[in-house]
Amino acid sequence: MAPPLNDRRAPAEAGAFETGDAESKELWQAAWYYAANLSSYVLPLLTFTFLARVLGPVEWGRLSAFHSLGLYLSQIVEYGFNFAAARDVARYRRDRDMKRRILAEVHAAKLLIAAGVLLLAIPCYALLPGRLQSPVLFPLALAYAIAQGSTLLWYFQGDGRIAQLSLIEAVTRSVAAALTIILVRGPGNAWLMLALNTAACLGTTCGGLLLIRRDIPLTLASAQSGLSLLRTTFPLFLFRGAASMYSSANVFLFGLFGAPAAIGYYAGAERAYKGLTAFLHPLMQLMYARVNYSLGRSAEAGRNTLRQSAFMTILAGLLLGLGCVVAAPLIVSILLGPAFTASIPVVRIFGAVLIAEAVSIAFGVQWMLPLGFDKQLTAITLAAGVINVLCACFVAPRFGAIGMAAAVLLTNSALALGCITFLRWRGFQPPAPDGPA
Questions:
Q1: Phi-psi bin for 436: left (phi > 0), alpha (psi -120 to 50), beta?
Q2: Can you give the pTM of this predicted structure?
Q3: Does some domain include residue 340?
Q4: Are 290 and 309 in contact (CB under 8 A)?
Q5: How many domains are there within the chain?
């Protein structure tokens, strides 16, 4: 069995950061990845823009609630491997046998998780409020969750070939977006959006497996190995699950308490915000792999990369957030249409969320995880998730979409403050760390 994915003693292999030629190659990989990754945000943004206008606030909010449920459950299936497994693959980049074993164990673990999600989610259908019960959308949300959670992003990210998978994803998402716009004509066939997105995710995964097969044989580890991996990665699962409470599940959560039209206004604003994260999250993923590799090389290289990652991420979040606040009326007019004027103040709040999220990414994902503070980050994230749920239950029903957006801002701010406070307590002074733990 491969060493635990949270083993801090994994050796760094020679790779993409050592020579000038390799660094040039990595820059090209990063540029291609950044361009291709825009499809995972921009294409859904175009699709949702179309659907919001065709369906209207009420039906659009209902569809968005099930899409949000699928996204949240997909984070459970993903289980934190996008961080833990990517970290190991990056450090064993030139060890083909080790990469094969890691891939086999992650697949076995995800099959066990997917089975558990289905067994637990199906009986919960009867507990949904009447306005959210749909014998078509609910099973499609479950299928989308499993397909999305089975992503191979973690492997290609750690292996330094993330641009390849991103290009495949760009093609499958483009096809799904085009078919959605062609085929969906009203509430009666809105289910096609979830079905086509599920097919796109499966197509991307199949394409990724074909690429991996050229490098290593595809095998499946035993159920016992999968269970062992789930135990060692459990702290990161808690982190991902808690983070998803306020990053993926909010539309569904708000749907349990909010008025139908308010759900649509909030979902529209959140979708605009998600579109802007197209310029933030790819940077997070690229810098996360680089930070892990640099820390494996030397303390000095790690310190330099930590400073660079914090500066670049926070600057990007600040620019995006201020732009969102200033251009909120224009964003709503272009993306959602005149029926969603009530979304303008919600979009402005999400501008502030972008800034807080950038800070939490810089000092949480890009600092605390590579430095081995998995459990501490998980505890901070769980506390932030509890804040989000409590605000959703008690604030959002009273203040509607604005209240829900304010809950997200409070949650991300608490997360960012918690990460900075912990790092300072351990002797790190953002943005200039004394050295890795």
A1: beta
A2: 0.74
A3: yes
A4: yes
A5: 1
